[in-house]
Amino acid sequence: MDPIERIDRATAYAGGNVGRVRPDDLGKPTPCTEFDLRTLLNHMIGNIGMAASAARGEKAALPQGDQFGSDAGAAYEVGAVRSAGALERDWELPFGTLAGSMMATILFMEHLTHGWDVAKATGQGTTMPGDLVAECMELAMPMDEMLRMPGVCGPAVGVPESASPQDKFIAFMGRTP
């Protein structure tokens, strides 16, 4: 699948879940243990905005403060990284420069996973698009060492061999399915 299409589909999945968040959900804990829901949404929305700037060839700035006011769904941008040449250029990010193709993979993985986090935290259905789960797992497995760095995903969670592909993916990303 085209990397930009992957991001669009992952952000569409996540955006649907973000759009169903109610104001009284914002203080809830999430499977991404360092974030309550408000903090996770600020991270997701700030991240997609930062990525969109970098994809356009701009030097991206670290997001500051609240990213969504009272409506996270309205602030979450699906299709934000659709810029000509985005995958061919390096993305200038606050933490360093990365190849656009690598950032596209990270963005896909992050928003698919965090979309599940939002659904789980708010009691929404947690079924993810199966083709995205399979593709994301294939892309994530070689990044295992990087994903285990502090502040990224945490350790993988054990699941039975008989677990579904989605549960295996979620567990690999450091969450309990």
Search tags:
177 residues, mainly alpha, two-stranded antiparallel ribbon, 49% helix, globular
Report on the structure:
The protein has 177 residues and is mainly alpha-helical. Helix content is 49%, strand content 5%. It contains seven helices and two strands; from the N terminus they run H-H-H-E-E-H-H-H-H. A hairpin with a 2-residue loop joins strand 1 and strand 2 (96-99). The longest helix is centred in the middle third of the chain and has 23 residues, at 100-122. The model has no long low-confidence stretch (mean pLDDT 93).
> What is the arithmetic mean of pLDDT?
93
Strand order of the largest sheet: 1-2
- The best one-word shape is globular
Rounded Rg:
15 Å
How many helices? The count is 7
Summarize the helix and strand pattern as letters: HHHEEHHHH
Largest sheet entry: 2 strands, antiparallel
Low-confidence stretches: none
| Overall number of strands | 2
Helical percentage: 40-55%
Strand content: under 5%
Distance between the ends: 26 Å
The assigned structural class equals mainly alpha
